């Protein structure tokens, strides 16, 4: 199992890579056969190529991630709350999300699950308590 | 599947019941054969009696839960970030946690997983960004 520090660092690397629109760096955080279910309940993206494509498309929106509170680490998993800020037709939009990563012993993400739904979209970028 | 509103209400009912130290009300949010894995990686508490016992004991610490940010809803699941504030030997302590609830069609929680680890304990009650 990777150390808590390594899992926390992987989450920070994920956010940084997303925010500089670097889908290769995001893909390289995942195991070759990893699954990305974003949002939970939708068909998963499976494997490096599908994961790269999903993130490349997501980054084209110009969305940026903002961590909210500390990364939670338990067993081989990390959970973290964040907001996604983007503009749709020049209107600022925020999506509140919680992601859960599961890691393998090599420190790669084998499963990513993103929790958000229609009620987590809001106009503007008002801070939450 | 329960509505997003019903799942969000269940999370708020859970926090309120915990904070008034009412383990019966917490238990009644769960299905009879539900599992509680708190923290993730530890042996789960299975079924109403075990869940009641676990929460009754947790509440004896005087711990109180404080939601941080909105409840995230995806599919049949709710994820939410919160802090636990308690005192150990009169010293204030905070634990930062993310819980994930999965619901059945009757709106009862069938699986609860709590994400936190040693790195999520801090002295005092300093607010997080």
From TrEMBL, chains A, B:
| GO molecular function per UniProt | isomerase activity
| SUPFAM superfamilies per UniProt | NTF2-like
| Keywords carried by this UniProt record | Isomerase
Q: Where is the SnoaL-like domain?
A: 11-111
In terms of InterPro entries, this protein maps to: NTF2-like_dom_sf, SnoaL-like
User: What's one Pfam family here?
Assistant: SnoaL_2
Which named protein is this? Steroid delta-isomerase
Q: Which organism is it from?
A: Sphingomonas paeninsulae
């Amino acid at each position: 199992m990777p150390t808590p520090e390594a899992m926390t660092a992987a989450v920070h690397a994920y956010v940084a890579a997303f925010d500089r629109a670097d889908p290769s760096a995001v893909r390289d955080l995942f195991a070759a056969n990893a699954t990305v279910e974003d949002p939970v309940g939708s068909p998963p993206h499976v494997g490096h190529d599908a994961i790269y494509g999903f993130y490349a498309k997501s980054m084209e929106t110009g969305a940026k991630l903002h961590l909210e509170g500390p990364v939670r680490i338990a067993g081989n998993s990390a959970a973290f709350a964040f907001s996604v800020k983007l503009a749709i037709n020049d209107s600022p939009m925020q999506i509140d999300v919680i992601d859960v990563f599961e890691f393998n012993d090599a420190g790669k993400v084998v499963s990513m699950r993103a929790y958000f739904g229609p009620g987590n979209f809001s106009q503007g970028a008002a801070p939450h308590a």
